[in-house]
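for the writeup, i need someone to sanity check this before i put it in the appendix. the sequnce is what the collaborator sent (i think, or maybe the updated version? ugh). structure was predicted straight from it, no edits. if anything looks off just tell me and ill rerun, i have time this weekend
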Amino acid sequence: MIQNKVAESELVTLDLKAYLPQEEPALFDLKNFLFRELILKEKEFRSALLTHDWEQYKGRTVLIFCSTDAIIPIWAYMLVVVYLNGVAADLAFVNKDTWITQKTISSIEQIDVSPYQDKRVVIKGCGEEKIPEAAFVMITQKLLPVVKSIMYGEPCSTVPIYKKK
């Protein structure tokens, strides 16, 4: 008879994908409002903001950033916020990767670790969605005080990370 040792091992798998933000934020890249994507000309910038379709951001989280190495005066970001005020549900001054990392870490900080008390936990490592590296650091730090062991990967092929002595 074939024995499934993985099924009998009492491993608990934790998939960090569950802690990724579910919403897709809207992106507001100032690059699109710059002359040659590098230079902010105040008159043209203000004119472009005035004619921009702000309703596309209605009720959404909007990430404000500039994806080029242009020097952007602080007032330009402030002006964008004025237009988004009352339209967007939330604003953040970050790029998408940083926002995903921040939201994921915030979700992990809320985890109740009591169900993992004295358990052997596998932090799922392979998946279709990219999990920020910081999430793996945060979950390891959060679980260390309560778990029996932490492994990384899949239950059939894990890398040992920690074992309580």
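Residues 26 and 62 are 5 Å apart (CA to CA). Confidence is low (pLDDT under 50) at residues 2-8.
thx in advance!!
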